[in-house]
UniProtKB/TrEMBL annotation:
GO cellular component, one term: cell outer membrane
Pfam families, alphabetized: DUF937, OmpA
Keyword Repeat: no
Keywords: Cell outer membrane, Membrane, Transmembrane, Transmembrane helix
Protein's UniProt name: OmpA family protein
Keyword Membrane: yes
Predominant localisation class: membrane
Superkingdom of origin organism: Bacteria
Cell compartments where the protein resides: Cell outer membrane
Transmembrane annotation, as ranges: 201-219
Residue ranges annotated for the OmpA-like domain, each copy included: 322-438
C-alpha cells in the first residue's frame, strides 16, 4: 500500500499526461503543474469525508474497484473534462465557486481550467485506491481505515473549509424530505463539530464517478424522479448514447426465463459465487431526513428509500384487498447458508429500517421470508419462517414495538426468478417488508 496517495496520484500525471491535460483544459503546462498540487488534495479530502458517512466507504470501495478495472489510471484523460466539470459542480455545491476561484487565483490559471483538472484527477485517484485494494485484498472497512491514515495530508484543506463555514455564522440548513406530518426540522447544528459540516458537499456527485470511470453510467437508463421525502444528491445529467448492458443485468434476465419464474422488474447488481448471494446495486445516494433531525444516506434504489417514500407519500396507500402488493425486498440482508443466522452486514440495513419506522410511529409492517426450491418444501417453509422472525427480532431489539411488526415465512412460493440458475436462486432467497398500516 502506498504511504502517500497524493504523491502516487500526482505521479500519474507524467510529462506527456500534463501536456495532454493542458490541451484539454486550454491552459499552459506550467499552469497545470502549479494547479495539480491543489486539485488532487481536494479530491482526496472529498473521498475521505464520503468514507466517513454511513455506508459511504462501501460507495468509495465500489467506485475505486470499478475505476481500477476500467484502467482509468493508465489514461488520466479517461474522465473527459466536460463531464468532470458537471461532476464537481454537484460535488462542491455551494463551495464550488469559492474553491474553483481559490485554486485558479493561487495557480494563475483560469477557473475553467481548474474545473477541467478536477474532472481529470478524481477518476485517477479512485483508480489508484482500487489498484491497492485489489493488490492488498482490502475490503471496504480496511480501505476506510487506510483512507483515515491519509487524513493528515489534507487536514489543512478540511480545517480551512470548516473555518470558512464558521466565519459565515454556522448557518443551519433546512432538513430535506421532512416527515410529512411534522414541521420541517433543521439539520443538527454542528458548531462544535465543524468537520461534520463538510459532509454536506461530499455526497452529491461522488457516486456519479462510478458511472463515469467504468462506463457503467447511472444515467444510461432514465433515472427515477426523487420521491417525496428525498433529495437527489447526484443530479448531473451524464448520459452516454451507447453503453453495453451491465453483466449483472444479463444474469438477471437469464435467471428469469425458467418455467417457474414470476414477472420481475429490472434488477441491477451482480451474483457473488463465493457467498452465493446476489449483491444489489442500490443506486446513487439520496439523503433521508428523519423525525429526530438526523439523516440517513442510502441508495435511490434501496429498500430504505422505497420504504421511506411509501410511508412519506400520502398518495400511496396500503392495499387492504390484494396482500401480494406493496412488498419491498431487502437488498442487504443475508443469512448463513441453510440457517436463520443473520450475517454481520445485515444489521446495518435493519438498523436503517428501524430508524425509518421510528420516524413514522403509526406504521406497521410485515416481514416475509422466502427460499429457493432446493430441498424439501416443508423444510424451506420452516427456514423462511425462522429467517423472517430473526429479522423481526432485530427490529424489536432496536426499539420497534413488537405489536408493530409481524413475520411470516412463505418458503419457496412467490418466486421472483427462475430456480434453474444460481442467480435466480439467489434472488429467490430473500427477506421482504410490506407496510400493513400507515
Amino acid at each position: 500500500m502506498a504511504q502517500n496517495v497524493l504523491e502516487e496520484v500526482s505521479a500519474c500525471f507524467t510529462a506527456p499526461a500534463v501536456s495532454q491535460a493542458s490541451v484539454v483544459v486550454g491552459e499552459s503546462e506550467a499552469g497545470v503543474r502549479k494547479a495539480l498540487p491543489k486539485v488532487v488534495p481536494l479530491v482526496l479530502s472529498s473521498l475521505i469525508k464520503l468514507s466517513e458517512q454511513v455506508g459511504g466507504i462501501d460507495v468509495v470501495w465500489l467506485m475505486a474497484r470499478d475505476a481500477h478495472e476500467a484502467g482509468t489510471r493508465a489514461d488520466v484523460l479517461a474522465a473527459q473534462a466536460p463531464r468532470g466539470q458537471e461532476l464537481m459542480k454537484a460535488l462542491l455545491t455551494d463551495h464550488y465557486s469559492g474553491r474553483i476561484a481559490s485554486v485558479a487565483s493561487e495557480s494563475g490559471i483560469r477557473t475553467e481550467a481548474v474545473e477541467g483538472l478536477l474532472g481529470l484527477a478524481a477518476p485517477v485517484m479512485l483508480s489508484v485506491l482500487g489498484e491497492h485494494a485489489a493488490t492488498d485484498h482490502l475490503d471496504a472497512p480496511a480501505l476506510g481505515r487506510w483512507l483515515q491514515s491519509q487524513r493528515s495530508s489534507v487536514t489543512g484543506l478540511l480545517l480551512a473549509d470548516a473555518a470558512t463555514k464558521a466565519r459565515n455564522g454556522h448557518g443551519i440548513e433546512p432538513t430535506v424530505g421532512a416527515h410529512p406530518h411534522t414541521a420541517p426540522l433543521p439539520m443538527q447544528e454542528e458548531t462544535d463539530h465543524p468537520d461534520r459540516r463538510l459532509r454536506q458537499w461530499l455526497l452529491p456527485a461522488l457516486v456519479i464517478f462510478a458511472a463515469i470511470i467504468v462506463g457503467y453510467w447511472l444515467g444510461r437508463t432514465p433515472r427515477p424522479a426523487p420521491g417525496p421525502g428525498t433529495t437527489a444528491l447526484a443530479t448531473a445529467s451524464l448520459v452516454p448514447t451507447t453503453t453495453a448492458p451491465a453483466p449483472a443485468s444479463r444474469d438477471v434476465a437469464a435467471a428469469a426465463t425458467g418455467p417457474d419464474a414470476a414477472p420481475v422488474t429490472a434488477i441491477s447488481g451482480r451474483y457473488d459465487a463465493g457467498t452465493e448471494n446476489y449483491i444489489y446495486d442500490t443506486g446513487r445516494p439520496v439523503r433521508l431526513a428523519l423525525v429526530d433531525g438526523s439523516t440517513l444516506t442510502v441508495g435511490a434504489n434501496s429498500t430504505e428509500n422505497k420504504l421511506y417514500n411509501f410511508l412519506a407519500d400520502a398518495t400511496q396507500q396500503v392495499d387492504p384487498v390484494n396482500r401480494t402488493k406493496g412488498w419491498i425486498n431487502f437488498d442487504r440482508v443475508y443469512f448463513d447458508a441453510r440457517k436463520a443466522t443473520l450475517t454481520d452486514e445485515s444489521t446495518a440495513q435493519l438498523g436503517n429500517v428501524a430508524s425509518i419506522l421510528k420516524s413514522f410511529p403509526t406504521a406497521h409492517v410485515k416481514i416475509g421470508g422466502y427460499t429457493d426450491s432446493t430441498g424439501y418444501f416443508k423444510d424451506n417453509l420452516r427456514l423462511s419462517e425462522q429467517r423472517a422472525t430473526a429479522a423481526m427480532a432485530v427490529l424489536v431489539d432496536m426499539g420497534i414495538a413488537a405489536n408493530r411488526v409481524e413475520a411470516k415465512g412463505y418458503g419457496q412460493k412467490h418466486n421472483v426468478a427462475s430456480n434453474e440458475t444460481p442467480v435466480g436462486r439467489a434472488l429467490n432467497r430473500r427477506i421482504s417488508v410490506r407496510v400493513t398500516q400507515k
